[in-house]
Task: structure prediction
Amino acid sequence: MAARTLKGASGIAATSLEIGTMCFALLYVFGIFNLFGLTVMPVAFNGMMSGLALTLTLWLLPATKGAGDRIPWYDWVLTLFALLPAVYVFLFYKKRVIGSMLASPLEIVLTALMIVAVLETIRRSVGMGVVYMTIIFPIYALFAGHLPWLLHGPSSSLARTSGYLFLFNDGMFGTTVEAIATTVIAFMLFGQLLFMSGAGKFYMDLALSLFGRFTGGAAKSAIAASGLFGSISGSAMSNVATTGIITIPLMKSVGYRPNFAAAVEAVASTGGAVMPPVMGTVAFIMADYLGIPYANVAVAATLPAILYYLAVFIQVHMEAKKMGIATITKSNLPSFAKTLTAGWYSLIPMVVLIFLLMVMRMDAVEAVGYAMLTALVVAAFKKETRFTPRKLAEALQKTSESLIYVFPICVGAGLLIGSVGLTGLGIRLSQMLISISGNNVVVLVILSAFVCFLIGTGLAMIPTYILMAVLVAPSMIAMGLNAIAVHLFILYWSVLAIITPPVAGAAFAAAAIADSDPMASGWIACRLGVIAFVIPFMFVFNPAVILQGPWSEILIGIVLSVIFTFALAAGLEGFLFSRTNLLQRVMLVGGGVCLIALSWYVRWLGIGLIAAAILWQWRQRKKATA
Result:
């Protein structure tokens, strides 16, 4: 549902709340409270942030499409439902945490009020499907003892369930909300500061100057620019809305079909979630779960992310060749030298961030804090990019507005995770997956991919990843699979729903800009992003693809994965040196799939099929030009 524009006193209240929410978050994130001797415990902070963010959602997203520009009375009532529990947790959590975790009658009522507010904001921001998914888990916690088979577990009293969900670190205000309220908010603000300082135009012009003159240059430039911003923002849909208004018309202007242009933007924006160095901030959460330095996660994710974008690059190149799409005329392209000379300073904040994260191994929030200060200092050297108090307030406001589509799902995910922890469902699900798979690791991996994809259709990337790290990852690791590979596997399969119909949120958002058929754009996005469906199976069975293992195996893994990516992209696009026939496409795709196998007999078969298809195509072209 689209956000409404509030006017009058309602508008002033909403703007004040947006800026105030961000200021409150930054005071906690950067330790300002501690400087004044104020100790705010994580759950207390998470609870207050949840109340503020849910209030924003209630105010900015109307209950019905016909709502006006004022906050109606029922939204004020729901505001109390969101804020009263939040204020209670913020003020009294420190005292309650050392007492009984059974909820008092007042706390049971406050838990119920917060759940109502969460469900209503989820309905407005995502839809009823996720509401059903969210509410079923707390109900399950109450009645697990009455259910059969693997769903059977210990029933929990209302007081215990409420206490666990409302006051415990694994409940509504636990890990998922903390990730959004600290790391993600900091990176969202960093991205907003970069964009408003002119870095957005610079990165787009730089991409055009580098790729625009080549075949498929418009699409290649869109991929580079959208992938970069997608990595920082962590939200494919917001990235589509930001960069898509530039890239999609550009692709259409040189001859790309609207459906295809929308799909390219959706896939490029979605890929930011798996592209180091930031990976939409999920890399930092993954590092915490694995207990390893962030740099290790970033290095492991590098080759799969490169292969993802390589596959998209190859397909837009071949689409341009196949459809005879013209290159962008030189007169319409920015000069690389002039672009770099005029805007090189826009690279400094990103360079600082990468240096602090990868070389200095600094904490993510601390690193992005220094990167934000760098962005403000760099912007101050030019009058047109300088941040005035009004402009800084606008950056805070825009960042805060992005929370309304993220926070409700994350608080709801806290309900899911809390209920799973309370009932021990996670352990039983791991046992169930291993049992159903018959201790066959291949079957287990396929089942795990299905579960991740299914949950990803309803939840955002970060809550999906966290939930799957609890539910699915343990069973895969127990079967002997590499832990980093497993966590990257569930990350990939958690984000795929955003480009896959019938959900395909990123593709649908891009289709609205391109004025194209949403479903058609979604299916094309699936084809362009097909590597994301397959590469996780490669690296989960062959960790060399994520640069884990002996260097000899890593080098072989790199070569085979590049050949695989080329063959798969060419086969699906139906073009190599010229249009391919059905048999040639089957040979390319089949040969590529053979390279996933660990057996060298199968790998050599795949290499032979790919080589035969290439030779066949080359001879056809030679005859055609003779």
